[in-house]
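Batch manifest line 335
LIGAND: flavin mononucleotide
JOB: complex structure
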Amino acid sequence: MYTLFKKILFQFEPETSHTIAMRGLQFAYRCGLTRFISPSISTTQHSQTLMGLNFPNRVGLAAGLDKNADYIDALASLGFGFIEIGTVTPKPQTGNPKPRLFRLTKHEAIINRMGFNSKGVAYVKNNLMKMRYRGILGVNIGKNKETPNEKAIDDYLIGFRELWPYASYITINISSPNTPGLRELQESHFLKTLLSALKQEQHRISISQQKYVPLVLKISPDLSDEALRELSQIMLENKMDGVIATNTTIERKGVEDSPYAKEAGGLSGAPLRARSTQVIRELHHILQNNIPIIASGGIMDETSAKEKLEAGAVLLQIYTGFIYQGSGLIANICF
Ligand SMILES: Cc1cc2nc3c(=O)[nH]c(=O)nc-3n(C[C@H](O)[C@H](O)[C@H](O)COP(=O)(O)O)c2cc1C
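JOB STATUS: finished
ARTIFACT:
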């Protein structure tokens, strides 16, 4: 059924298809129809406890699909073990001018330069107050484009302080290639201060509010081996609760023949798979099970999902695979 649905959807310009698909899903959910398409996934067989959280299964939705928490309940009805919303910026911002989303169908890939189009913390908070979903929710936070890196901590602290009550865990996104300079926050001097400020805030809240909200860092696949080693050390020193490897890549290896190859932005999907797995393997080697790894990047089928687990990941997140394969992918990779 999804093959037919996809055929129709892919006739539209990608951002329009996204809106149609999400509104269609919302409508189907409200009419009680999503239960006919969602797989029955046994929670007893597939549950995982990690970061002090009980995941009903290890397949989650990656950040970026539901940036403003508009569709959580509808998405959850498809059988995801967890959902990550965002990236949320403190103030609303429109992101980059359109077109900013490109489908590389032959390569089962996407290039996006959305640029954190976010309706902002206040809007998202309001949606989170209304959601019915009681499962595992990741809230991915970022900084506004106009905020200089020297002041980035303030933006991440706003995201954390405003949204922790609704979050099962908070993801710190410093790896999107579409906000100028953002990935510099992965450099040691920025990262050390950012993580220690957020960890202090986490500690303060866990004492005063009796709720420990795990902090997860989402990293880029484009780091050098040395940068990855340094970053891992800083994560260990700061006792990070988890790491998501990886975000999209600025590399174009394998898609050079696409008419969109020269479009600026982050590449996701099948061409990202190998590099993303390599990062997981390296991280696993350095972190030695001290920080759980959440895989994101090119999980398109059973083989690519198994590869991530073998490399050392414990949870899986899908985005591009979900666009190309539909919700059937969730049950297929629910090992
Ligand atoms: C259109 C689009 C928008 C995205 N937006 C975000 C975002 O706002 N924040 C984020 O952390 N990652 C974002 N991502 C990255 C995904 O969460 C994911 O890490 C990446 O696409 C690799 O996984 P995939 O190959 O399964 O798509 C986005 C990806 C796409 C394709």
